What we know:
The protein is mainly α. The protein is built from four helices and two strands; from the N terminus they run H-H-H-H-E-E. 0% of the residues are buried.
Amino acid sequence: MDQSRPGHQALPLIIERPDLAHPFRRAFSIILTAGGWIVWLIMWIPFLGALARHFGYNVPLVSFPSQLSLHSFLLLAELIPIVVIAAMLAMALRFLWEKLRNHAGFPDRRWRPVGLERLAHHMALDPERLAGWQSAQILYVRHGDRGNVLDATTNQPKRPE
């Protein structure tokens, strides 16, 4: 069942066998990738130049609109330790809550078995009727216009004549 038909061999993916791609497509993808990397590196030049000037290195002034991006980056860099400490504290509190929740009197509702009474309550049925449905080997279901279940019974319904 999980094997393909005999004689039908699927082609390998292009990412696994790039030599199967057309030579023009391979050359174009290499040029496009290299161009993307070059543009990405060029975009870092103004920021790195401003950062070097901030730390006192005498580098030529690179044209960029303002020092606002550098100032924003430095403010974020000062906030990184606070964010890391807050995240570690949140993880520690969550870990402690998971360990101490049962001792505090809060039951673990995630792993509670459903049971017939709870299932019948959520389906707005009598538990005896639901137990009859579960014990039946064949259940006849009547659907509404939109496909929702209107009724279910273990007895075969009479067909209209």
